[in-house]
Structures are given as C-alpha cells and as structure tokens.
Fold each of these.
Amino acid sequence: MHRPLILLLLLLVNINLSAQKVDILYFTDAHRIFPVDDVEGGRGGVARLKTIVDESKSDNSNTLVIHGGDLCGGVLFGGMYKGLPMIEAFNEVPVDICNFGQHEFDFGVDHTLELLSKSKSQWFTSNLKNRDGDTFANLPNYLIKKMGRIKIAFIGLTDAMNSTMKSNRVIQEDLSVAISEIIEELQNVDFLIAITQTDLETNRKLLAQFPDIDLVLAEEQYEYESNVFYKGNKPIVATAGNMSSVAKISLQKDVRPLIDIIPLDENIASEKYLHDMEIYYKKDMELKLAEKISYLEVPLNFRDGITKESVAGNLVSDAYREWHKSDVGLINGGGIRADIPQGDFTLKSARSLLPFGNKICQILIKGKELKSLLKKFAGNTKGQLLHVSGISYQYDQKTDSIQVKWNDKVLSDDELLTVSLNNYFLKKLDVECDVLIDETDANAKEDYEVLRNYCKKQKALHPKVQGRFVIVRE
C-alpha cells in the first residue's frame, strides 16, 4: 500500500476516534492566580493549568475545560483583587464553562455582573434565581454541548449562599427543586453531568434522587487531596483546593467514564505568558503588603475559632469594638481565614486574617435580641460561632439556654448596647436592631484597616484566651 494512502487512513482513524471521545478537564476553587507555596514546589497556578489544557487539546480537539466555582474572595489574593485576574487568566487558558461558587458574590451582585461582563467563558446556573424567578443574570439554566458524536448536558448548582453577601437580587433555589424543573428537558443525551458547589452527602442524595445523572463534578472536599467518590457506580469527582489539581475525564458512549487526577505541581511546566502574569501579581501583592504594623508574640490559628474561643477571634473582635467605641465587638469564626506565625505582624498578616474586605458597621440592639443572636450560632461548627469583645456568654446545648454577662453582671433583656460587626454578618441578622453605621458610611472602614489601626497602636500583640465564651456541648 502506498505511504500517502496509509497516512490518509491513519488520519481518518484518528478523526473517527476523536469524534467518539470527549475529554473534560475539571478544576475548582481557583482563588489565586499563582501557586500556593505551602508545599515543596508549590501547588496550583494558572500557568500550569494552561500547559495541561494545551496538551490535552493537541491530543483531542474535543476537549472541554470546566471550572466548578469559587474564583473570587475566600483567600488573601481573592480579597485583594476580587477575582478580576482570574477572569483575565481564564480567558487566556481558555476556560469553556464556569459554574458559580458562593464566593463569586462576596463583593455584591454588581461586582459579580462585572466579572461576567469581562469573561469569555460560558456561565450558567440551574438554581440561582433573580427576584422575578428567572435565572440569575438571565443566564442559561442548563447547557447542552455536542462534540463529535457525543451529546452532553450540564446542570450547574450552587449551595451555601447564606455564607456570602446577602442580596435579594440573587436567590438560591433548593437544589432538588431546580433539577426537577429541568430534568425532563435533558433526556436525549449521552451524558448528564452535574457541576456542583455543595458537600459530599448532598451530592450523594442528588444521585440517589436523580438516577439519570451520570457524573458529578463537585467542589473540593479537602484542601490537599483530590478524590473520586462513588454512589453506586456514579462518580463524584472532587479536585483539591486552591486549584491544586485537574481531573481529566474521558467520555465515550456506553463506556464508564475514565478519570485521571493530574496534580498541578512542580512536575508541570508553566506556560510562559501566564507565568509572567503570575509573577506580576505576586510582586504587586508583596509590594502592597510589606508594611510592618506590630509584633505578634503568639501565633494565631484560625481553625481554632470554628469550634471554640481563639486568640485570633479575641484580637479581631477587640479591634472591631475599639473602632466604633462600641459596647460589644462580634466576629464569626469563619470570617478569620489564615494562620499567622509569631513575629512581625504586617499588613499582609492583617489582610490574610481578614481577606474579604468587609466594612465594619455598628448597630444598637436590646439585650434580649443580642442573646437570641448569640444563641442561634452558639452550637454552630461550620464557621458561624460568634467571638465577642466586651461581653462574655455561656451556652448549654443540652438545655438550649444562654447566659450573657456585661460589666460583670447578667445582661438584662431591656439593656441597650452598641455592637460593631462586619457588613456581611449585618446582612444575615434576623433580629430587631437599629443600624447606626452601615457599609455606606464614611466611618465604616474595611475590616483589615480596622485591625491595622488597632494593632498599630500597640508595640506588641499578645492576645489570650480569656473565657469570653463557653459552649457546653451535648
């Protein structure tokens, strides 16, 4: 057989095989553009992602790049740059499909819409609605992609919207209800894939309730580990946090998905253009954060504040209270986001602790309502436990009772107190209060600036656990 004919036949075979296979590159939790340097060689980074995408597309033109959600807020970089560099990088990769994480709304709906306006990716949502009941930003509520001979439908789900900036312009519909509303339209496809920002147990329940779903691309379950869980024979793919890995999922008709986890580590070369972008933002960030504020005599562990009193929570709540000269300062444990070692306390330290850039507001509240607020979150172990300054409290989970002390005596129901808290938590309040200073007030400075101001007045910082609250658990 002549060589040109052989080459032509091989080309036709490759084209036919490509038409029968789709490769999905999936990653999630992309809060920062450059690698996280907490392991040898670093993990993540958009330049490494670009290398993997280019290699995959050279092997198979039927490749889809999907981001599961959370490219804004969440960490120091996300708080400083608010997701805009990630959009710039995603356009360059390029990322084909984006689902929302709750952090995309950390800076308000108008900022979310700005991100969408600059993005070249296809955004969609199956369960985020506007106040009229249509999909948020009038986006598609599902996607159908036909690549070669394979037809794939996508559902996009976002959970935990109560942990971001509250707005009646974006409403989280129940995940099961949202799927029920569109599932009948997604029958004549080869694969039905759910892209979800929710926990593992909820994903398993969704697979049990909707057996037509073939695969779940989920949010990270662990910061340093990628996982493929199963409900029956249906995979739930959860790549590691901070874009530490990519899942390559190969789809062929009548064949179970083939899943490969690719770590974005030092073994992956960095594409030059995006690597230069990483270097620019890293230097820009370091320059802005170099200012020394004080000296920290004890390390701060932010995870302590999720379930118990912490020195970090005490330091921050003290700063909030002092800023507005309030009776009380409040901070939810999950609002503190980084460990800070003993040593120089810099602007980077302050912004790492408080990366969201929330404004510090002030309310006037009765003792009865304050007790109700503290009681509501006292048993929480997912970041809503309230750290306090100016008062102390004890909550008994078994009897669901709380006692609050102020000025060394039991707080009465009718006592009026001023409280400093951030605008994120202010918008979550469901108790009666008068807002004295809201986020639009000139005195409502960003949280890290308030902390900076407080710490700068002191040559050394030595926060302590002081028994400010005690939770008696069942």
Amino acid sequence: MPSSARILVVDDHEEMGQMLKEPLTDAGYRVDLSTGGADAIAQLRARVYDVVLCDLRMEEVDGLDVLAAARRHDPELPVLLMTAFGAVESAVEAMKRGAYHYLTKPFRLDEVLLHVGRALESRRLRTEHRDLKRQVALRGGLGSLLGHSVPMRTLYELIDRVAASEAPVLIRGESGSGKELVARALHSEGHRSQAPFVAVNCTALPHALLESELFGHIKGAFSGATTTRRGLFVEADGGTLFLDEIGDMPPELQAKLLRVLQDGEVRAVGADGSRRVDVRILAATHQDLDARVKEGRFRADLYYRLNVVSLRVPPLRERTEDIPNLAEHFVAQARARNPRSSVTALAPEVVATLARMPWPGNVREMENLVERLVVLGAQPTVDLAQLRLHTSEAAPEVHPLAAAHGQVVPLRQLEGEYIAWVVARCGGNKTRAAELLGIDVSTIHRREKTDSGVSQR
C-alpha cells in the first residue's frame, strides 16, 4: 500500500529532488530526500526503504555506488535510476548490476509514479512468494483442523465469529493440540486472507536473534549483520503475524512488542527511524499466562493487549470421538509421504486402543505414532501386536461393563458408553457397529445428538 511504502529520492540537484518528492507524497508515499550519494548510503544504513529513486550521474559517489550499497544492504530493494539521454549505456550497465529500471530525462511525473508502483508490486510479489514457500514448509505437522466432536464444533463456531474481527486473539492450548492451525484458520477466514500469514515460534530462536527476526535490523547493527533484514512485522504488513509460545518471550522483548502494538510502528535494530505497519496479531501459548503475570514473568499490560479475544483448543483426550477420523486422515497422509509402505489401514481394535490412550502430546503425538506404524508396518492392516511394538504404553482394554463394576450407573449412560465403545472398535464405522448391535444406524446418530445436547448444557 502506498501509505506504508517509504521511498528514498537521491539527486544532487535539490530542486529536482523536491520536484519528485511532491507528487510522490501526494500519491500517499513517505519520501526522504538525499542530496548526494554518500548521504544516500548513510540513509540506507539507518532506515529500511521500499524503493530507491536515484540519479545516475552525481559527483564523487554516483548512482552505481548507491546501487551497489543498496544491493549489499537489501538484495531485493528495487532501485530506479534517472539518467540523461546520452548516458543510456551506463543505465544498461546498471540494469546488469541489478537495477530495477531506468528513466531517461526528461521524463513525465506520471511515468515516475507508474514505475514506482510497478517496483512496489514486484517487491510485494517476491515477498508473497517467499511467504508461500514458508507456509508450505510449515504445513507439515498436524495436517488440518479435523473433528466433529462437541468441543471442536464449539471451536469452529468461535473461529467463524472472530475471523472477521481485527481484534488480537490469544489462542490457548496444550503443546501439539493444533494452535497454529487455529491461527491459520482465523487468517484464511478473515479479510486479510490474501495478505501474508507469517508465523514465528518465540522459543525456536535465541533471545538475541528473536528481536532481529521480529523487528529487522540494518547492516552492521551487530556482529554478523552483513545485510539489512526487514523483519517479520514488515513482512506481515497488511496481513497476520502469529506469535507462537508468546509466554516464553523474554521480558525485554515484551516491552518492545507492547510498544509496536500501541504505536503501530516498528524500529529495526540499529535504525534511527520507525516504520508504520498494519498487522493483525494472533498469539498462542501453552503457559498459564494469568499465573505468569502474577509471578511478574509476563507483563500485565501486554497480556491485556493480547487477550482481547481468547480461544481454547481442546486437548485430544477431551475429544476422543474424533480419533477414528484423525487416524484415517493420518494414515492417508503417511501413505502419501511413504508410497512404498504396505500399510493401508488400522485394525478396529487398534483404533479403539488409540481412543483410550492419554496422548500428552495431543494430535501431533498421534500423527507421529501413525506415521511410525505406516513406515514400519509389514502388513496391510496394522494390528494390536504391531501397535505394541511401536508404542511404550498402549492403553489397556477397558470394557464399559468393567468400568461400571462395583457402582450403580444409570442404564442410559451405560447404553451410550457401550454404543460408543462398539463404534470405536469398528474404527468409527457406525453402519458396521449398528449391524453388530442389532440396531438401526439412525439410533446411533440420534443417541450422539442427544448426548451432545446434554454435554453442551
């Protein structure tokens, strides 16, 4: 967007610089002027720009020197060079060295606006392409949000309501429960869906590098900063930034993050100026942030800023009725990744056993186990013996009648538990379960709806 793009105009004739600044500013861009090559290179070190518009012929430090400096600081920064008609050969040489385009004097101002707009669009497309590659890399893991249990239906309804909002969302849930998938769903269902979705895990990087990753840095800001880095806030401009495991962010970065959320501006490490960004913030944590605030380990003001809307992702043990569908989905995914595998399905008793396992690692743990079974399985159908070979503790077989032994249980409750147990043993096949029970399959569906209504109340 023009309102968020910053342009550096470089010309050793100040009146020419002013002549270019006015229409660019009127078009909505933020424009800085530089009256010489050396000054322009200094400004490139101090601030992040989206486009450079530079005169080719200047005394001492010319446009080719500025181009080289811009390429060193940010290889993707578009540089448009202005040249007199007689210096076209030099402009062509500049194009070979990485200039985006050149303008031959005298030129019309609408021509300048046209090429600046194209340069910005080219930069945006390159950024989106990089974001797309990052998203493809991140789409492993859990696969997709799946499940029709009451907790998941409740979550889907909340996502539908919250997605269209601009409010920050704090996503709570245990590790492996699918918090990033919820964040992606919020992004894809909202009006920013065509803009970048950028994710960062606050525990995946050393604290010293996390600040640079989030806010960017200029060349030479610290040891190893050999080029300028835009930062994830700038990359997510117009879209969504997902801060995973926000509860583990160090206190000094919490203060800087709060400042960005309050002011809507981000300052790169080592820079002397700020840049406005338009970003929706989604954050996630498995930590008890209320407790961390009381302990002084998480800023209360940042917590209130992030916790405008709170969504809870249910752990797998609270939605075991989804396990048959998840198992089928993960088998299909694992087979696609391992086409030479002999495994095509899990035996019903294996699915029933999976439904009784504790799953401290939630859906991610289950996916990893299913892939292990597919990779190492030697038979088309994985049975209980194979399952026990590849897991340290399979849940013991517990029949509903055994669970009720020694206590009085309402008949309707026992009937519902027994039907669910048989469905699980049939791998989620309700038609087969109805045949074994000697009832119509509509009875199973009706009982599930009735039980769901009771649990919702």
